[in-house]
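Quick entry, no commentary yet.
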Amino acid sequence: MENMDKYENAFVEALGVGRADLAGLEYQGIPAWDSVGHMQLVAAVEDAFDIMMDTDDIIDFSSFEKGKEIVAKYEVEL
């Protein structure tokens, strides 16, 4: 599985959204992305790429696009 697929799957599985809805997805843009959903998403992304985000990155993980920037900081190419 390619890295972008892993990244998208983390959102789909943690938040229960469809792939077609990912591009513009933002924190609290859907009911599932509340504080609990946020932590589930972060855990899913960390598990998918075997990384451990620091606290600032977890807080900044506020959209699908911003998440791409954060994951890239951990040397994951999407």
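second:
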Amino acid sequence: MNERADPQKLPRDGSFEIRDWLRLELMPHFMCPGCGHGIALRALLWALDELGIDKDKLAVVSGIGCSGRTAAYIDANTFHVTHGRPLAFATGLKLARPDLTVIVISGDGDSLAIGGNHFLHACRRNLDMTLILLNNEIYGMTGGQVSPTTTADRFTTTTPFGNNEPVFDACEVAKAAGATFVGREATLQTPNLKDLLKHAVAHHGFSMVEVISDCTEIYGRKNDLGNSPEMILAQKSGMRPEAYRNTVDQPFRPNPFRTGVLHRGDRQEYLDAYRARVQAVQAAKGGGK
């Protein structure tokens, strides 16, 4: 089995209080009004609370940028590391402390551009940790540059005449590289996002959840996308009716944008494989005496 527990069968008494999970002394937070990363952070803490994760056994690693700053507000063991390297740091941490629940919070630039190589190999190894990829389609805090997920024709500081590069589908890349749990959700659907994150954290192996998040200041204003409520509601235009449990008859615009659990595989987790190899070597040495 690839699941520690079925999140749907865990007790849910509705007692989640976000203040219990935050470093209140760091408030007010730095995020811009309407930033989707705050919604994603709430969904994550809600998920961890319902899973009954012990904060002393929780390690959250983040990189540089707006996404990287979110981990600082979590009242747990948090690590703010160099740009593009949170997955590398998290790998070493999980190998040294396999008893910890390790979560990485990273952005689309942090994970797929400067950290793209680490992303591929984290998926390949299938080490038991969770990557939450906050995709706002831009380098927000670090200059407003185009990212691997910036939509075609969008304006950024490095694409003043519109982006002409094709985008990465982060979920397809993760699946192809070997991740055994891949999902996607938008901040618009916060309860769905919380449930998806519960499944991801409970999964035994490498899990990746892409969160479609809005950036109102660096991305939204430059592209005349409106204020935060307008940007969040516009997330509907990229979803199929199935994302709303068929509550609409026609998609807002026809495309293959999917949400929910997109891939779940059953492959040996890295530490399990490592332990089995060590035992085999030790048995061979013992048998040779």
